[in-house]
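I am still getting used to backbone structure tokens and would like to learn alongside you. To get us started, please write out a protein record for me. Once you have written the record down, we can walk along the chain together.
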Amino acid sequence: MSVIPVTVLTGYLGAGKTTLLNRILSEPHGKRFAVIVNEFGEIGIDNELVVGADEEVFEMNNGCICCTVRGDLIRIINGLLKRKGGFDGILIETTGLADPAPVAQTFFVDPDVSTRTRLDAIVTVADAGHLERRLDDSHEAQEQVAFADVVLLNKTDLVDEAVLAALERRIRTMNPFARIVRTQRCAVPLDHVLGLGAFDLDRVLAMEPDFLGEDDHEHDQSVTGVSLSEDRPLDPAAFDLWFRTLINVRGTDLLRYKGILSLRGSNRRTVVQGVHMLADSGNLSPWPEGAPRTSRFVLIGRNLDADALRAGFAACAAS
């Protein structure tokens, strides 16, 4: 039986993991991948932002892949291994709050998974504009850099050379083994992230002897996710006002937000996403014929008032 390579795409909230995943799936490589996407909130958004039409995307929602839904990861992989036809690799996009160490453990401690798969590399996407702050205040961001085989220093157009050089020095202090690649919008040759054979268990054990243990991972309890949904179409002007006010007032607490919206007067899905005060929006494909046009919006941050957010979002619905 062939051994299937696995690439883990990790990185803090909003760094660009889904952008990298879409880059991989869009290239004319002729390979077939199984894609597993983990989201922190109870509503799945990322699966609709993945462009690979030939790939089946497996969602793991309402929990983090490194702890509460780790058993689901094992079940999904074991199910994939029993399928006929096969595939060339497995791509796992973790939630931005995942510690990659317990995810990597999965491919060594579960006997069926360890026999049929091989952890090829942990690829960490880092937002050059926010990495310094995240390394100061987030244990997960530190672990994502420390366990990386490749660090994609993304969004390099948003900072100057002095900042990039300082970030690279800090990354090398934390992880002298990782290859650092500067990118914009995760534009990187595939041979920089796939087929590397880069994950070295002996090196990891030397760095963290308890790596293969079953230690539980604890998240920052001040970080929560709020999932919003609305079946009525949203008024564009009302949503714009509510959203702009939200990021102006609470932007420093918003670590990540993303949504797919149904706006009055448009038959296309509108995507809104960003980090802190940096927001972006655009149109996706039209809503499928006969499908419910439900707006879904997920916010992840610190000290979020879920009731106020739900009320504000509902008030954007067109009358």
In short: The chain has two domains: 4-207, 223-315. The chain is about 30% helix and 25% strand.
